[in-house]
Amino acid sequence: MRLRGGAAAAVVLVFAVAGCKADTTTGSGGPEETVGAVGSGAALTAAESLTVKGRAPKTGYERERFGTAWADTDSNDCDTRDDILKRDLEDVKFTGGHCKVSYGVLESDPYSGKDVTYRRGRSQVDIDHVVALSDAWQKGAKYWDAGKRIALANDPLNLLAVDASTNRSKGDGDTATWLPPNKAYRCTYVAAQVAVKKKYALWVTAAEKSAMKKVLSGCPGQKLPVGGNPTAAPPRFHAD
Q1: Among candidate residues 149, 155, 129, 158, the one with its CA nearest the CA of residue 230
Q2: pTM of the predicted model as reported, rounded to 2 decimal places
Q3: What angle do helix axes 186-199 and 42-49 make, rounded to 10 degrees?
Q4: What are the mean pLDDT values of the chain's consecutive 10-residue runs (240 residues total)?
């Protein structure tokens, strides 16, 4: 996936890839980073370090527990969804100002490999939570305070513009139950899931960890993406 869109490049996520294609993406907001984690196989090493536990019950999960959708947690006056559209789309056009994306092209969608056109109001593009919020809820997030859940839901490190129809097949699956059909993107995708789970101290199931290691063993030089927003949203944001 190439550098896309005209979003404010306050964060740079760099993937040095062996066995997978290179991936360089700008995120919006958060600390500035210009390199991946140091050392060969950083993503695989990080995957091996993740805590293993059983999946907790989904009881109590609601999207509202992660705050209002697409909250402007980085305070750039644009909502998170538009930030990611600006970051990931090409040929971006706006309606009234520099925030509301009305048109763009997702060139070589990471999940399917096809080009997808975005038009506001009849979009074929989703903003996917790489680590699904329901999955996060069952692996630690149900015990967090609201600020941390809101941060996860709006963290550019955990967000990606993708083909809507392909994304709907994912549901709230983890690495053990769903991988992108585009095999060339799987190393990058799994590394992103590992990065999010490590950053937010989410656990993984035994099957999930095994699946992560299997994918990343096929690209042993895969770096771990870094950056994104802080792990606590500003106190003005609230969740039900």
Answers
A1: 155
A2: 0.84
A3: 50
A4: 38 37 34 35 95 96 97 96 98 95 97 97 93 98 98 98 96 97 98 98 98 97 96 95
